[in-house]
Amino acid sequence: MTLRTPVQTRSKLPDVGTTIFTVIGELSARHNAINLSQGAPNFACDPGLVAGVTRAMAAGHNQYAPMTGLQALKTRIADKIATLYGTRYDADREVLVTASASEGLYAAISGLVHPGDEVIYFEPSFDSYAPVVRLQGAKPVAIKLNAPEFTVNWDEVRAAVNPRTRMIIINTPHNPSGQVLSAHDLAELAAITRQTDILILSDEVYEHVVFDGAAHHGMATHPQLAERSVIVSSFGKTYHVTGWRVGYCVAPAELMEEICKVHQFLMFSADTPMQYAFAEQMADPQSWLSLAAFYQRKRDLLQSLLVDSPFRLLPSAGSFFLLADYSDFSEESDSALVQRLIVEYGVATIPLSAFYTDGTDNKLIRLSFAKDEATLRAGAHALCQVKPR
Prior knowledge:
This protein has 15 helices and 13 strands. By secondary structure, the protein is of the alpha/beta class. A hairpin with a 7-residue loop joins β9 (about 310-315) and β10 (about 320-325). It is globular, with a radius of gyration of 21 Å.
């Protein structure tokens, strides 16, 4: 039986239900569908990483880590960022190890955004940004990227900025479009925020997954933006261990102080054994420098396998994702098509409309290539069989 409460509740997020990822996951499980939907690898991580966790556990590192993270790991993070992007963060005061990148995003928004503030973000977007802003009593302001290129219209951003604007949320490489910001984009963002109190929250969890020899134009590459930015990244995405739920963020000390005030009451500290293992793994720069080529091979394989499919693939400049346009062969909504793909063809994808608060339907679905070769081949084979409706 279902237990019922006599207590009257008032939801803070009355229009938020089960996420599309859960819905698609449940439908996929019922039909044993091939998983091209979830941005989580289905292949093993480096065995040395698992061994590192095991060693840490055996050595007794099973209690709370320091609140901001293990010093050795924070130092590795600071050194990596300085080497790659040219900005040096103080490992003691400006680096925070978080219990997932999602926790880092939440702590940053909660610590720095106040009731009545406005937060600009770009759609399609990762689904947590707007709800977390709303939980602070603030207003999320969505600006749509220009489809199908998914570029930023900076004139629209300028028009949206007002005295209540507290934060702009950036995501590069971008989930779900696979696009990346350019040096020109950073210059535009810097010009808009110059001589303001606007903060930047930059979701850079795919920072090491940028393709075709291009550079990652993150906030730490631009001194003016680094001064007002909180940058969030993910060990789970970098090391194929999304279930370990460890990430980090970096920010100027004054901003980090406020983020840590929230973090200490959310989690206090991230998982200790994993932090020891990540500190060991980061001793080898190839553990992240090799990632772009690794995922580019997967992108290229999936693209080649879908050449004869009815779908038209959009370019992917980074991340784990490709967008596929089906407007040439169907007028179905993207949600209807995704459900048909699961039920009739046994392959799971994600409708792009799920990444818009207003359900914008551009006749695009998202495919994840963060999968082993067998899964990519099987999923592509199924998609090549799709018939018009």
